[in-house]
Amino acid sequence: MPELPEVETIVRELRMKIIGEIFTEFIPIWSGSFVEDKKLTLNGRQIEEINRKGKYILFNLNKGYLITHLRMTGQLIVRDSVPDDKKHLRLIFTFKSGKYLLYYDLRKFGRIYHTIDSEKVLQNTGIDALSEDLDGMRFAELMKNKTTLIKPFLLNQKYIAGFGNIYIDESLFRAKIHPQTKVSELSPTMIKKLFSESRNVLLEAISRMGSTISDYKTTGGGFGTNQNFFRVYQRNGLPCLVCDTMIEKTFVGGRGTHYCPKCQKMNN
DNA sequence: CTAATCACCTGAAGGC
DNA sequence: TGCCTTCAGGTGATTA
Question: In chain A, what are the domains?
Answer without folding.
Answer: 4-122 (3.20.190.10), 127-259 (1.10.8.50)
